[in-house]
Amino acid sequence: MSEETHKKEHKPHDDQHLDKLTVKELREMAEQFPHEKAVHEMKKEELVAFIKEAKGIKDEPHAHKHKPKGKVRMTKPEVKAKIRELKLLHGQALEDREREKAALLRHRISRLKKISRRVAQV
Question: Distance of CA 86 to CAs 98, 104, 107, Å?
């Protein structure tokens, strides 16, 4: 077998995914740019930073789509009031023969009951 069959075909590197490349691949890319420090002495993080700087890529942190919300603590009376409200809606859904809505409300009621038991322990 020849060496050509063992070599991987390299796709053009996407600038956004430099962290996923191997150090060897990063060194090959870094050698294309003028450099002051020896490329073979650089570590992976240094290579990625050097290539991004040379290509003019701004290193932007990941923007969170949703801000993490803290847990909303409800008191036991608030939980019980919510359960009573959902029970009324559940009864109406059963009368109107809305099975899916009734099942959803039943699951919410069940979940709130579990929460009320936990709140009562504290």
Answer: 14, 10, 10
Task: Name the residue range of residue 15's domain.
Answer: 11-55
Number of domains the chain is built from:
2
* pLDDT tens profile 36-49: 778 888 888 888 88
Closest CA to 37 of 25, 24, 51: 51
On whether residue 71 sits in a domain, the answer given is no
Q: Please tell me the pTM assigned to this model.
A: 0.42
Q: What are phi and psi of 66, to 5 degrees?
A: -125, 135
Q: Indicate if the alpha-carbon torsion angle 61, 62, 66, 68 is positive or negative.
A: negative
